[in-house]
Amino acid sequence: MNVPSEPEIAIRLYRIDDAPALLEAAMESVPEAYPFMPWCHPGLTLLEMHTWIEAQVAAREARTAYELVILSQDGRFLGGCGLSQVDSVNHRANLGYWVRTSERGRGVATAAVRHLVRWGFENTDLIRLEVLVSTQNVRSLRVAEKSGAWREAILRKRLMLHGTAHDAVVFSFVREGVL
């Protein structure tokens, strides 16, 4: 059996000049992303993207979030991933990801998650990264599983999406060698 190789991608922290590429990728992805990512809505503007990136730069400086761009080998904007809601007391954060619609189904999100886990453990003192996914988001559940996350539980009515409570699966990655 021929197993497809993981795509060669890179991740890096967002820069202000990423706003146009972020907007383009988000607008392409609204139909698929909006049900699970309310920020990715019809009518997004370049100003919203600039404002969001500026907030991420401030969050990074405050060590409360680390948002990164997913790039192809040739520098094309493929999506985003990040560590948010950093809990410095318990050394944990939420891990999230999204890939533009035209790049879905190629292993980009799985590769990005693996890169992000490595990046998070090498560049922060976090020991636990949690992935929280609506039970209805089949693609994202599959990414968490394929990336090696440990499936821990289904949390009832854990996520609010568009005013509706969703059950969610919690997955985790933990830094090895930490008591």
Detailed description of the structure:
The chain has one domain: Aminopeptidase (3-Layer(aba) Sandwich). Helix content is 32%, strand content 34%. It has four helices and seven strands, in the order βααβββαβαββ. It has helices at 19-33, 46-62, 108-123, 138-146, and strands at residues 9-13, 66-72, 77-87, 92-99, 128-134, 150-161, 164-174. It has a seven-stranded mixed beta sheet with strand order 1-2-3-4-5-7-6, sandwiched between helices. Helix 1 (19-33) crosses helix 2 (46-62). The radius of gyration is 16 Å and the shape is globular.
Please supply descriptive tags for the structure shown above.
7-stranded mixed sheet, globular, alpha+beta, Aminopeptidase, 179 residues
Give the SSE map.
Layout: E1 9-13, H1 19-33, H2 46-62, E2 66-72, E3 77-87, E4 92-99, H3 108-123, E5 128-134, H4 138-146, E6 150-161, E7 164-174
Parallel strand pairs: 4-5
Antiparallel strand pairs: 1-2, 2-3, 3-4, 5-7, 6-7
Quick take:
Helix content is 32%, strand content 34%. The protein has 179 residues and is of the alpha+beta class.
| Terminal residue distance | 40 Å
> Radius of gyration in whole Å, from Cα?
16 Å
Give the rounded overall mean pLDDT: 94
Strand content: 25-35%
Counted by DSSP, the helix tally is 4
- Read across the widest sheet, the strand sequence of neighbours is 1-2-3-4-5-7-6
Q: Regarding CATH, which class? A: Alpha Beta
Tell me about the largest β-sheet.
Answer: 7 strands, mixed
Give the assembly state of these chains: single chain
- What is CATH's topology name? Aminopeptidase
Whole-number total of structural domains: 1
In N-to-C order, the SSE pattern is: EHHEEEHEHEE
How much helix is in the residues? 25-40%
